[in-house]
Amino acid sequence: MSDHPGLRAADLRKLLAANDVEVQGELNIELISGGRSNLTFTVSDDVHRWVTRRPPLAGLTPSAHDMEREWAVTAALTGTPVPVAAPVAIDRTGEFIGAPCTVVDFVDGQVIRSEEDLQAWTDDEVAANFDALVHTLADLHAVDYRAVGLADFGRPEGFAARQVKLWARQWGLVKTRELPDVERLAAALTERVPAQAASSIVHGDFRVDNTILAPGDPARVAAVVDWEMAALGDPLTDVALMCIYREPVFSAVLGFDAAWTSARYPDPDHMAQRYAQIAGTDLGDWQFYLGLANLKLGVIAEGITHRALQGGSSGAAGAEHAAEATASFIAAGLAAIG
Hints:
By secondary structure, the protein is of the alpha+beta class. Helices cover about 40% and strands about 10% of the residues.
């Protein structure tokens, strides 16, 4: 058996047994590098392969590491047009491993994280991948959340207004210095919340590296992963965040040249318009959504550094510098809303 400070094989074996999952042989645990939020591990025995996720070891912020949320939404989406890893087991309270965690089936495929990963694709394959991702996001937003048992997953009404309050509040929890423009942006967004909005399941963190692509086929999404920020809410918040992730400064948050910031993908305006075309919708008060997405990413960047300073980094290099991107996101948010 192999252990990690965040996951002991003996504890995980007990969790699997409690969920009637038979383990054959020794459990081997490997931390997947590159994460900035929940810790993600591959787990294998002599026959099976699974993926286990749990919150960071330190520096948690409310709602950002909700394992029950991930479990509920992936279980509900199983069998829909949205591809997900099949759920296997959950430790809701930390009874078994000392923190909440989920176990899902391992999905074979490729994960594209860096620009270097993207170099293996032709331009046509990049374009096909972009289209597949936008179709997948539109498919998610088209799922009838009541029909799949998620009617009680949250309150979609007033979602955007609550998001502004949430990220303003979390700024107070994770800030490593004073930055008055954060409060300015939050106040401006509060005054501009759209009066009406559509409601759907939202992923909350959608981009290429939060998907697993079919082996050798960039045009097919095998699974959407990292559902820890999923909710019922305004689908345009997902679209705007997907677009803002395209900004080059996001690479500074991750600590490497991210695939999703590559100039080989369409620019954010094209992405948004393509989504609107596929989903058959308009983009509403698009400047508000861009402002909110920038607020969220600015606070997330700050939170990564906050956790690193507390010793809670998942091991990715440069986490202590992620907050250097915060001011750029906040400035872009203020510019978006005028």
